[in-house]
Inverse folding.
């Protein structure tokens, strides 16, 4: 039984590593475009095709395997690096945290509903939430 667990853990680790490499490439390609909507639409469409795998890999949480948390840090760090290149000497830590939460929770919500992510609609809904909060 222990050998079966080790083989499963090794397979899961390889799958997570492969996915993280692919995801890192998506994030790197973000630096090549200023059209954020187009970037998100392209990436979410590709990820949607892998939604069942992603949701499954997100459930694996061990000391070595934690894809959701890794993606969170990747999004946050990528955002901070991009913004610091544009506006140096500012602390973008909070903004990076918020973006990572929004991106991953939105992705999780739609993937669990087995629906593609309607990017423009999502941005509109986030705007509506912010307006409602600001209105009191």
């Amino acid at each position: 039984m222990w050998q079966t667990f080790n083989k499963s853990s090794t397979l899961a680790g390889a799958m997570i590593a492969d996915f993280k490499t692919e995801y890192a490439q998506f994030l790197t390609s973000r630096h090549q475009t200023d059209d954020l909507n187009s970037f998100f639409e392209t990436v979410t469409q590709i990820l949607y095709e892998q939604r069942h795998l992603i949701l499954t890999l997100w459930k694996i949480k061990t000391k070595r395997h934690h894809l959701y948390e890794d993606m969170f840090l990747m999004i946050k760090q990528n955002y901070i690096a991009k913004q610091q290149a544009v506006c140096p000497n500012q602390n973008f830590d909070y903004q990076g945290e918020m973006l990572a939460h929004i991106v991953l929770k939105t992705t999780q919500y739609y993937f669990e509903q087995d629906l593609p992510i309607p990017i423009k609609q999502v941005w509109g809904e986030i705007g509506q939430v912010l307006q409602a909060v600001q209105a009191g």
Summary: The mean pLDDT is 89. The radius of gyration is 17 Å. The longest helix spans residues 2-30. The CA atoms of residues 15 and 53 lie 9 Å apart.
